[in-house]
From TrEMBL:
Protein name: Peptidoglycan bridge formation glycyltransferase FemA/FemB family protein
Superkingdom, taxonomy of origin: Bacteria
PROSITE patterns assigned to the protein according to its UniProt record, in alphabetical order: FEMABX
Pfam families documented for this protein: FemAB
Listed transmembrane segments: none
Similarity section: Belongs to the FemABX family.
Keywords: Acyltransferase, Cell shape, Cell wall biogenesis/degradation, Peptidoglycan synthesis, Transferase
Length: 362
């Protein structure tokens, strides 16, 4: 964690504690060295193939490296060598690196254009040179990526939504500036929630049960399979054992009724809205807006550079099933970012092909 703390932040999926959360995988924390100098770290999660002592070595949103280094290719070769010694048939990485960025006005224009159905059809406001260089390095090194995996199906989402909390000069934004960056609907809903007496409080570990109750309601309403309460308790215990303020739970209530609940995770200067839930009843009191606004303010007060609303799909067409999600998030005044994506390096090509076919059938 010392290396991550010096960097300012890294994905919470690369912290040593995440191995305790994903106990169905075998976790290993590794370091990269240039001589005696530590140049990077990573959390490898090993998943065994059925009936064979061969493993997929997966680094979700990792490893943690300075991707602008000139010796990135050497680091990746060292990773592959280590994975091979650990009987991995393939390595999967997901560098936590923004490659493309779309600002709020660009996103809104794309949503309004009936001829545009995906963000990737629109020229991004920024394409990072370090992202382009890394992509070329990976291609030349024999790594492969699924360019079509732009949704939630394949590992960690490629497209995410983030709200910058700092100005370009590094100074923290004021609450008034954050509010002014939101659209009129968001500001109106925040004001309405306050007027109706909605309160937002930080909960304790015991309140995860209350969060989980309406989380399951949300899962049933939105058609996804929810995680167990035990999973969230394990996540709380593992992350907060590493840092007592790493994971929080928030409760939004109206006249004694729980109307929304969320979890937030913070590593250094980066805060994530990780899970959210809301009731079907009392949606008109805007508890979800109130709880997001409280988390944004808390992240800002903690000195974070980014409040991360996590994954989106890139679909912006009127009939896209996830269009409501990006419309909700763009109202915060944030921006869409595309990471470099997840990349695989086959060590044993026969086993990797069999594994790939198995995933596609599943």
């Amino acid at each position: 964690m010392a290396f991550i703390n010096e960097r300012g932040s890294a994905s919470f999926l690369q912290t040593p504690a995440w191995a305790d959360v994903k106990s169905e995988w075998r976790g290993e924390s590794i370091g990269f060295f240039d001589g005696a100098t530590l140049t990077g770290v990573g959390l490898i999660l090993y998943r065994q193939l059925p009936k064979l002592k061969r493993y997929l070595a997966y680094l979700p949103e990792g490893p943690v490296l300075d991707w602008s280094r000139t010796d990135v290719a050497d680091h990746l070769k060292a990773l592959a060598t280590h994975a091979k010694r650990s009987k991995a048939f393939a390595v999967r990485i997901g560098p936590w690196l923004t490659h493309r960025r779309w600002l709020p006005d660009t996103i809104k224009t794309a949503i309004a254009d009936e001829n545009v159905t995906a963000l990737s059809q629109v020229t991004p406001d920024e394409t990072t040179l370090v992202g382009t260089r890394l992509r070329n390095t990976l291609l030349h090194g024999g790594w492969v990526t699924n360019e079509s995996a732009h949704g939630f199906a394949a590992g960690q989402p490629m497209f995410n939504f983030q709200l910058p909390l700092r100005h370009a000069d590094g100074t923290q934004k004021t609450e008034a500036e954050l509010l002014s960056g939101m659209n009129q609907l968001w500001r109106r809903n925040i004001k309405k929630a306050a007027k109706l007496g909605v309160t937002v409080t930080r909960g304790t570990r015991a309140d995860l049960a209350r969060f989980h109750e309406i989380y399951l309601e949300t899962a049933a309403r939105d058609g996804f399979t929810g995680r167990s309460l035990a999973y969230f308790e394990k996540m709380w215990d593992a992350l907060n054992a590493e840092d007592p303020d790493r994971m929080r739970v928030y409760l939004s209530e109206h006249e004694g009724d729980l109307v929304a609940a969320t979890t937030m995770v913070r590593v250094g200067e980066h805060a994530w809205y990780s899970y959210g839930a809301s009731t079907t009843a009392k949606r008109e009191v805007r508890g979800s807006n109130a709880i997001q606004w409280q988390m944004i303010r808390d992240a800002n007060e903690a000195g974070c550079a980014v409040y991360d609303l996590r994954g989106i799909t890139e679909g912006v067409g009127a009939n896209d099933p996830e269009i409501g999600l990006i419309q909700f998030k763009v109202g915060t005044g944030g921006e869409a970012v595309a990471y470099i994506g997840e990349w695989d390096l086959a060590i044993n090509k026969v086993l990797y092909k069999a594994f790939d076919l198995y995933l596609k059938r599943r």
